[in-house]
């Protein structure tokens, strides 16, 4: 059969259009084949993406390190929860109560406080540093951080009294946790191999300058090189994310930084308000602050820990989300857009800038000699104070 060009038989002025349609239909076929290949590859990746969860197995009461809960342990713990170690501000901490915690710790954990492997030091009168000597001195020590103070509490939003240590429906309500695990190991004649420190500050909720900072100075003076530092944990989320069924225990591996800048405008001379110039210091400042609000810092998704978190969640997620999260190489722009829609998730992917205070003007009928505004930045781990403070 001879070749028959479908465009040849039609009128000359339609010839070109017919050829173009042919090219488009060819291109759209290529596009569709490409799309099918792409989706297939992404599906294969979704279905074969391995879970990153370590297989730790079930714990059982017959395990050597199984700590059996006793009534004495619960009442010791309740007693500590009943002490109101509130830190209102750095100059208003309930210090007598902090001292009470020191005494209760000694009473509740006798093995720790009598062990020849453990040195207890009081740092800056109210903070505590325990040095636990492990059996293998070749291993670098680590540091466990915690604190004895708590933030003030609004009784109204608690289901139970916050300082009672009440047990309700199988849960013990309160804030604070102490070293029961170490006490158990010492009691069972099984001291740790690796040395470590326990640092307990007394002003964590109001800066940590008096506690954690003082402890770090003591450690630095001994030129201790740490294997790692573990501070208090983050929350366990369940049912917070759609399509993620299991509870998710978040591990904090980075923290946002902060820098607060005070910008001021003083260029325009003051004078009587009856003869103003085109602009005032307040007007110029207002424009600048508005520009800062409208020009957010760039998205840093993929340059901090948030991408790794989503990738670790991917295998545990249900289908539509799982498909997206296992293919972040393709969906990053979409995910970034989605995260930027809510203040809480937007804060996770970029440096944020909040205008928090303004001031200016002296009198109702005087042009303001100056105006100032304060911007509080929370810095993404991939940026620095320097990158955030440059104004263009
Ligand atoms: C910001 O700076 C101005 C002077 O330029 C000062 O008067 C004002 O008190 C400062 N604001 C804050 C909150 O520090």
TrEMBL record:
<dbReference type="GO" id="GO:0006508">
    <property type="term" value="P:proteolysis"/>
</dbReference>
<dbReference type="GO" id="GO:0046872">
    <property type="term" value="F:metal ion binding"/>
</dbReference>
<protein>
    <submittedName>
        <fullName>Putative carboxypeptidase PM20D1-like</fullName>
    </submittedName>
</protein>
<feature type="transmembrane region" description="Helical">
    <location>
        <begin position="23"/>
        <end position="44"/>
    </location>
</feature>
<keyword id="KW-0472">Membrane</keyword>
<dbReference type="GO" id="GO:0043604">
    <property type="term" value="P:amide biosynthetic process"/>
</dbReference>
<keyword id="KW-1133">Transmembrane helix</keyword>
<dbReference type="GO" id="GO:0006520">
    <property type="term" value="P:amino acid metabolic process"/>
</dbReference>
<dbReference type="GO" id="GO:0004180">
    <property type="term" value="F:carboxypeptidase activity"/>
</dbReference>
<dbReference type="Pfam" id="PF01546">
    <property type="entry name" value="Peptidase_M20"/>
</dbReference>
<keyword id="KW-0121">Carboxypeptidase</keyword>
<keyword id="KW-0862">Zinc</keyword>
<comment type="function">
    <text>Secreted enzyme that regulates the endogenous N-fatty acyl amino acid (NAAs) tissue and circulating levels by functioning as a bidirectional NAA synthase/hydrolase. It condenses free fatty acids and free amino acids to generate NAAs and bidirectionally catalyzes the reverse hydrolysis reaction. Some of these NAAs stimulate oxidative metabolism via mitochondrial uncoupling, increasing energy expenditure in a UPC1-independent manner. Thereby, this secreted protein may indirectly regulate whole body energy expenditure.</text>
</comment>
<keyword id="KW-0812">Transmembrane</keyword>
<dbReference type="GO" id="GO:0004046">
    <property type="term" value="F:aminoacylase activity"/>
</dbReference>
<comment type="pathway">
    <text>Lipid metabolism; fatty acid metabolism.</text>
</comment>
<dbReference type="InterPro" id="IPR047177">
    <property type="entry name" value="Pept_M20A"/>
</dbReference>
<dbReference type="InterPro" id="IPR002933">
    <property type="entry name" value="Peptidase_M20"/>
</dbReference>
<comment type="similarity">
    <text>Belongs to the peptidase M20A family.</text>
</comment>
<keyword id="KW-0479">Metal-binding</keyword>
<keyword id="KW-0378">Hydrolase</keyword>
<dbReference type="GO" id="GO:0043605">
    <property type="term" value="P:amide catabolic process"/>
</dbReference>
<keyword id="KW-0645">Protease</keyword>
């Amino acid at each position: 059969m001879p070749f028959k060009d479908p465009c040849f038989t039609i009128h000359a002025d339609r010839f070109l259009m017919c050829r173009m349609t042919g090219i488009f239909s060819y291109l759209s076929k290529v596009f569709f084949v490409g799309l099918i290949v792409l989706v297939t590859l992404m599906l294969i990746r979704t279905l074969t993406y391995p879970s990153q969860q370590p297989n730790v197995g079930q714990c059982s009461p017959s395990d050597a390190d199984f700590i059996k809960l006793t009534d004495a342990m619960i009442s010791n713990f309740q007693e500590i929860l009943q002490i109101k170690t509130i830190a209102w501000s750095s100059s208003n901490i309930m210090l007598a109560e902090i001292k009470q915690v020191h005494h209760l710790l000694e009473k509740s954990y006798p093995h720790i406080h009598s062990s020849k492997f453990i040195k207890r030091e009081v740092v800056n009168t109210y903070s505590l540093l325990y040095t636990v000597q492990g059996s293998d001195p070749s291993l670098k020590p680590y540091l466990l951080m915690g604190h004895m103070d708590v933030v003030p509490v609004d009784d109204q939003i608690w289901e139970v009294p916050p300082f009672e240590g009440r047990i309700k429906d199988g849960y013990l309500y309160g804030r604070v946790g102490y070293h029961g695990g170490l006490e158990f190991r010492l009691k069972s004649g099984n001291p740790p191999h690796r040395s470590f420190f326990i640092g307990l500050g007394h002003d964590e909720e109001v800066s940590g300058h008096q506690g954690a900072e003082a402890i770090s100075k003591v450690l630095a003076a001994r030129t201790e090189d740490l294997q790692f530092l573990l501070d208090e944990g983050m929350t366990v989320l369940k049912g917070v994310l759609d399509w993620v069924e299991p509870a998710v225990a978040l591990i904090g591996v980075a923290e946002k930084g902060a820098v607060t800048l005070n910008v001021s405008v003083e260029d325009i001379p003051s004078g009587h308000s009856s003869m103003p110039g085109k602009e005032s210091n307040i007007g110029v400042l207002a424009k600048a602050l508005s520009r800062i609000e409208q020009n957010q810092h760039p998205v840093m998704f993929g340059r901090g820990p948030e991408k790794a978190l989503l990738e670790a969640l991917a295998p545990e997620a249900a289908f539509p989300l799982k498909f997206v999260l296992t293919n972040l190489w393709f969906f990053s722009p979409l995910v970034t857009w989605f995260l930027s829609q809510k203040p809480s998730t937007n804060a996770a992917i970029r440096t944020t800038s909040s205008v928090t205070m303004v001031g200016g003007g002296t009198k109702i009928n005087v042009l303001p000699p100056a105006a100032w505004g304060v911007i509080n930045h929370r810095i993404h781990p991939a940026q620095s104070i320097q990158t955030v403070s440059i104004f263009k």
